[in-house]
Write a structure and sequence with these properties.
The chain has 127 residues and is α+β, with helices and mostly antiparallel strands. It has helices at residues 7-14, 18-31, 39-42, 54-61, 112-121, and strands at 2-4, 43-47, 81-84, 88-94, 101-107.
């Protein structure tokens, strides 16, 4: 799992996969409008590797994202949105009133239990 929170780590990740590079670049361009803030003060990108599980993601984030999800009408998600793309799921978490957040990228070949959950709650159809 990669944690990207500065320009150097983001630039390194951009060379790994074209779709991931495009998705991260969109966020970086939008956030560049916020003058006086370092990128790491506004967003942290978490990029999961193939085969990693929801437990790995829970550990990286410091809280469980899938807790009680099977208790369906009572389940309240901790994410703002989940979008599905050709190779990735993108989860957006807003962590504070100031808008600071985390964007998580889960490859579609990650843990099947996790990707099935994400597919269930995605906001769009794959592009």
């Amino acid at each position: 799992m990669q944690i990207l929170q500065d320009a150097t780590s983001i630039q390194t990740a951009l060379a790994t996969q074209a779709e991931l590079a495009r998705l991260i670049t969109i966020h970086v361009e939008v956030l560049s409008e916020y003058q006086g803030y370092e990128l790491g003060q506004l967003v942290q990108f978490v990029v999961m590797a193939s085969g990693e599980t929801s437990a790995d993601l829970d550990t990286a984030l410091g809280y469980p994202i899938t807790a009680d999800c099977n208790e369906a009408p009572e389940f309240v998600s901790s994410w703002e949105t989940i979008d599905e793309y050709q190779y990735w799921f993108e989860l957006v978490f807003v962590r504070g009133d100031d808008g600071e957040g985390i964007v998580v990228y889960v490859p579609k070949d990650a843990d099947p239990e996790l990707t099935e959950l994400l597919q269930q709650y995605t906001c769009n159809t794959p592009l």
